[in-house]
Description:
- By secondary structure, the chain is mainly beta.
- The protein has three domains: about 30-140, Immunoglobulins (Immunoglobulin-like); about 150-190 and about 205-275, Immunoglobulin-like (Sandwich); about 280-375, Sandwich (Immunoglobulin-like), CATH 2.60.40.
- Helices cover about 15% and strands about 50% of the residues.
- It contains two helices and 27 strands.
- The strands form seven sheets. Strands 20, 22, 23, 24, 26 and 27 form a six-stranded mixed sheet that branches. The protein has a five-stranded mixed sheet with strand order 3-11-9-5-7, with no helix packed on it.
- The chain is flat and about 85 Å long.
Amino acid sequence: MFFSIFFCMKQRNFLFICVFFVLLFFSVGVSALNGVSPGGYDINFEPGLKKNFDFNFWNDDPSKEFDITVEGDFADFVSLDKDQILGSGIVKVTLNLPQSVATPGKHRILIGAREILKEGSAGGGTVGIIGQVKGVIDIFVPYPGRYGEIDFSAFDSNPGDPVNFHLRIFSRGEESITTNSQIEIYEAGGFRQEESLLSPIVNFFSLSPSDGVDIPKGKLADVLQIGSDTIESGEFIDISAQLDTSKLGSGNYAAVALVTHDGRVVRAEDSFRLGELFIDITDYGKEFERGKINSILISVESFWNEPIENVFITGEVLGYPGITFQTSSIDLKPWSRGTLIGFFDTSLIKENSFQAKLTAYYEGKTTEKIVNLHFIRKTDYVLVGLIIVLIVAGLFFVWVVIDFLKTRSKRGRKRK
């Protein structure tokens, strides 16, 4: 009886939870605009400047209404041609800048569209999740005197092919600047270094100048001289440069752009890779079942800056020459990863743990790796059953004690 009651209570609780989430799902209004075009504008501050901007907000549902919002440092200097839009629409923004601004640097205005949730609508239930799209107006207030800023990017390549760099230099001060620029190239390790707690290897591929992190650098490999440029106040120049890699090997590199003007050095870093025609076997399935045909998933990664076609893997269980397999083939994009699948029969394997040799084939080359595999341990159902019986017996004992105490308490009250 106890188990019947317990099971019914569990069923009721589970049903209640399901109903709750179903009702919650139908009461939630999920709304969002599809987007805004253009995404943003960049302008330089001019005293008393009056300028118009158009933002086109669009949405798939023409019946939805949206409030237009304004946020940011210069929000008080913005006027709109409309406060709301229905479905999609163009919002005309007029900016009237003041005569002076105390704080130099970048100031941002956000022009947003937020759905109006109406009672009784799909989004007017208990909960409303409101999507909001925002367009951007960035205003750059010049610094006193001369002031430069830079953006810098480096691009992957292969040994022998040039590495492309892009450098943009801004004159953010009230006066023009004359710059002298160079790019320093540092070695930063190969692709196959082992990670350790004492010398962790930073993932180069996710770093950029905006991360504010110094890329780990080793030996200075080369210096690329860019030369001198004059940039007027509020203007910028784009510089493209190439590095000859004929004397550089594959691996990771750090590039540091140094722009000097008026005794000040502006610095930005990025990383690049010189590829190697190499495919690494990075991961693989390790647990298998006895006495049946098993699938094995194998992950690979390309370190080449060009596509590699028709990559496949063969496998051989060591000590069992007859147990082999070959995966399907895939094409890999530059610096990409992929997964292959193969099948092999474990019926003849006697050991609990065994080894296999995996060989990746690509572009006339191979990569081999010896891997450790093992069988899944069978569950001891007798032990599991005994544990379940003990748990059930314990619960039953607790229930009997509680029922006995309640009955005794009732009898005591009746005697009084």
